[in-house]
Write a structure and sequence with these properties.
- This protein is an all-alpha fold.
- It has two domains: 2-162 and 212-373, Na+/H+ antiporter like domain (Na+/H+ antiporter like fold), CATH 1.20.1530; 163-211.
- Helices cover 74% and strands 0% of the residues.
- It has 14 helices and no strands.
- The chain has helices at residues 2-31, 36-71, 78-102, 121-129, 137-161, 168-186, 192-209, 215-223, 234-258, 268-271, 274-300, 312-321, 326-336, 344-373.
- Helix 4 (121-129) runs parallel beside helix 14 (344-373) and helix 9 crosses helix 13 (326-336).
- The model has no long low-confidence stretch (mean pLDDT 85).
């Protein structure tokens, strides 16, 4: 069952990745068109709804995927998770260090250190999908698990570093709501509406408590009952209902709202800006170095093995694809400079450059691996 659901998830993400790319391309086109001014005004009016509200639904899917994989036993054996877990940790530490080293002399820019740490699973899987069955399933599952651990790291970063002035009264109220959600689960309630009602209340209370409300999506998902043998369980039902909306509407809408950048503003000075260099270098160099270094160490120490039927060059190709940060990087960058919009153009440019370089070189390496094997 784990393999079947994982295949469905990867197929949905690969199709969503194509739509995501189209949405990002449209955003750049509009940003350099005569209607750019009206586009920017419309985005500014709807940005809160998209980034704070709809993105919470994206994190619901992240939480559901995390819990479902746990219930189905994907995290039950250390041998199954140690390699993607180590690769994810390395792929977060090294990009953050590279960003910080480049921005040591610009303290204001240091707050963007988290921007290059995350992988966009939809884009990465979308590139893998170009190679069809020539990519071993074990390698695809490695990337999926790595991205899940990546998302967990991003969730922890958001929870710790992107709060503002905690209001303890609302925190207590949020804790009570979480307790009610857990109680519903314990009592075996299978109807969705009680969970959804409390989930909305949890989002509101966390927002007023000073914690970024997208965290409510993950907490909510983890409290849902899930039975691997029962498709009527709220966890599976909500995933079936929500995942297509997230992949085909919410994520492209996020890209449309956050990927727009004016090409007229790009010059040598912009390209050598420390924020741009830090993000692009973190994604392109940091991700591949971190993923490969930590993976190589574990494999050479006999603590893990290469994914089945996978060569080192294929693993390197996937390590490169992990540098496609796009959605999560844009999201983290937007949070990092939430009150300083003058830096957002640099964030977008750095994310786009780093992601494009990682995606193109990753695809080329995987193509060479395919030719070499044939």
């Amino acid at each position: 069952m784990t393999i079947r659901f994982s295949k469905q998830f990867l197929q949905l993400e690969s199709a969503g990745g194509i739509i995501l790319f189209v949405a990002a391309f449209i955003a750049i086109l509009i940003s350099n068109s005569p209607i750019a001014h009206w586009y920017q005004q419309a985005i500014e009016k709807s940005l809160f709804i998209i980034n704070e509200g709809l993105m919470a639904l994206f994190f619901v899917i992240v939480g559901i995927e995390l819990k479902r994989n746990y219930l189905e036993g994907m995290f039950s054996k250390l041998s199954q998770i140690i390699l993607p877990l180590a690769a994810a940790v390395g792929g977060m530490i090294v990009p953050a260090l590279i960003y910080c080293m480049i921005n040591l002399s610009t303290p204001d820019a240091l707050r963007g250190w988290a921007t290059p740490v995350a992988t966009d699973i939809a884009f990465a899987v979308g590139v893998l999908a170009l190679f069809g069955s020539r990519i071993p399933l074990a390698l695809k599952l490695f990337l999926l698990l790595l991205a899940i651990f990546d998302d967990i790291g991003a969730i922890i970063i958001i929870a710790i570093f992107y709060g503002h002035g905690l209001v303890y009264g609302y925190l207590i109220l949020a804790a009570l709501i979480i307790g009610l959600l857990m109680l519903l689960n314990r009592k075996g309630i299978l109807k969705l509406w009680p969970y959804l009602s409390l989930g909305v209340l949890l989002w509101v209370t966390l927002f007023f408590a000073g914690i970024h409300p997208t965290i409510a999506g993950v907490i909510f998902a983890l409290t849902l009952p899930g039975n691997t043998d029962e498709m009527a369980a709220p966890l599976q039902r909500l995933e079936i209902i929500l995942h297509p909306w997230v992949a085909y509407f919410i994520m492209p809408l996020f890209a449309l709202a956050n990927a727009g950048i004016s090409l007229q503003d790009i010059n040598l000075t912009t390209l050598t800006n420390t924020i741009v260099l830090g993000i692009a270098s973190g994604l392109f160099f940091g991700k591949q170095i971190g993923v490969m270094l930590f993976s190589w160490c574990l494999i050479k120490l006999d603590l893990a093995k290469l994914p089945e039927k996978t060569s080192w060059i294929q693993l390197y190709g996937v390590a490169l694809l992990c540098g496609i940060g796009f959605t999560m990087s844009l999201f983290l960058g937007t949070l990092s400079f939430a009150n300083e919009s003058q830096y957002l153009a640099e964030v977008r440019l750095g994310v786009i450059i780093g992601s494009l370089l990682s995606g193109m070189l990753g695809a080329w390496v995987l193509y060479l691996a395919k030719v070499y094997r044939t």
